[in-house]
Backbone:
């Protein structure tokens, strides 16, 4: 009887090990898929964020150039303009 039980035990052990291996493989595949999905989410997030930051930088650059042009015009206007004394002050100073 012991000789008949040994092959049956081996078969049961092999079936159990095969079932465990199949379960482990399934869990590893699920983990791989979750990690792959996470990496795809990070890639999409980074891509969208870089697009937003590029647009923001371009808008800031445009805003800065507009204000610099205004400042240059104001400085040129002041340099070309001769400062005239107010006639009232001229009378006060000369008196």
Residues:
């Amino acid at each position: 009887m012991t000789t008949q039980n040994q092959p049956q035990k081996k078969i049961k052990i092999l079936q159990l090990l095969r079932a465990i291996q199949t379960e482990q493989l399934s869990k590893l595949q699920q983990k791989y898929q979750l990690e792959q999905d996470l990496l795809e989410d990070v890639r999409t997030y980074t891509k969208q964020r870089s697009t937003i930051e590029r647009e923001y930088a371009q808008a800031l650059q445009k805003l800065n150039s507009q204000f610099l042009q205004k400042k240059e015009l104001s400085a040129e206007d002041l340099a070309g303009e001769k400062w005239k004394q107010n006639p009232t002050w001229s009378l006060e100073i000369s008196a």
About this structure: Residues 2-80 form the longest helix (79 residues). The CA atoms of residues 7 and 13 lie 10 Å apart. Helices lie at 2-80, 87-94.
